[in-house]
Amino acid sequence: MVVLAGVAVAASPRTWQYAGYPVTILHELGHALAALSVGFRLRGITINADMSGATNVWARGRFRTMWTLWWGYPTPAVGGAGLIWAAGNGWARVALAVLVIGLVLVFLLSRSWLTVGIVLLSAAVLGLLAWYGSDVVVTLVVASLAWLLVIGALRALWSVVRAHTSRRGLQRSDAYLLGRQVRFVPGPVWLLTFAVVIAAAGWYAATSALAVLT
Fold first, then answer.
1. What is d(CA 187, CA 179) in angstroms, rounded to the nearest whole number?
2. What pLDDT digit, counting tens, does each position of 101-111 carry?
């Protein structure tokens, strides 16, 4: 039921227009953490109403810039896989606390009122759940959120693949920007690297669900 709930929310256009924001937040948080890991200064994070986003950094150095660019699309899937592991190993409440800390970082870097509102609401809900929720409820919510992130990562990957095939909005694609950094490695190759990581996370999620059922 948990798997079906997460998949249904991510698959339905009606629910996705609201439930897709966590995927965008994790995408931008991936950029932000990657930037911090290589010493870049963060200027701000913006989440838009159409569920697009932007992370602005003071960037210098090709390979550090590429590292920062790469981590956007894989992060929701990796985060989802991590949440599935946490839910299955008794760490669901800790996982929620880690998510709240990540949301606090995004809040401190928010550069629009919409970003502030979405991040504060998300942090409040997860924080209250981590503090007051029973172990069963916390585990179920973490597992559902994990599947939402994994399926959402697949949706986001499909969207950027369509952007590359249709050439519409291509300049905003992380894969396109990576291809501009290293001309002999074109955008489709970077898309493939995203797909490998997201597929691995999806495989882990699926096998974990089957292990529970069996």
1. 5
2. 999 999 999 98
- The answer to whether the beta carbons of residues 36 and 119 sit under 8 Å apart is no
Q: Which two tokens stand for residue 82?
A: 């991590």
Structure tokens at 27: 């995408």
Please, what's the largest Cα pairwise distance for the chain? 53
Amino acid identity of residue 165, one-letter, is T
Q: Is 40 helix (H, G, I), strand (E, B) or coil?
A: coil
CB count within 10 Å of CB 68 equals 25
- Give backbone dihedrals phi and psi of 41, rounded to 5 degrees, phi first: -95, 130
Q: Rounded to the nearest 10 degrees, how much is the dihedral formed by the CA atoms of 79, 85, 87, 91?
A: -90
Q: Are strands 41-47 and 53-58 parallel, antiparallel or unpaired?
A: antiparallel
SS3 184: coil
pLDDT range class, residue 170, cuts 50, 70, 90: confident
Report whether pLDDT(19) > 90: no
Residue 33 has pLDDT above 80, yes or no: yes
Copy the structure tokens of residue 139.
């585990």
Q: Cα(104)–Cα(25) distance, rounded to whole angstroms?
A: 11
Let me know: does 2 contact 75? Beta carbons within 8 Å: no
In terms of pTM, does the model score above 0.85?
Answer: yes
CB 46 within 8 A of CB 66: no
180-210 burial by CB neighbour count: b if 16+ within 10 A, else e? eeeeeeebeebbeebbebbeebbebbeebbe
**Is 77:198 a contact under the CB 8 Å cutoff?**
yes
State residue 115's pLDDT score: 92
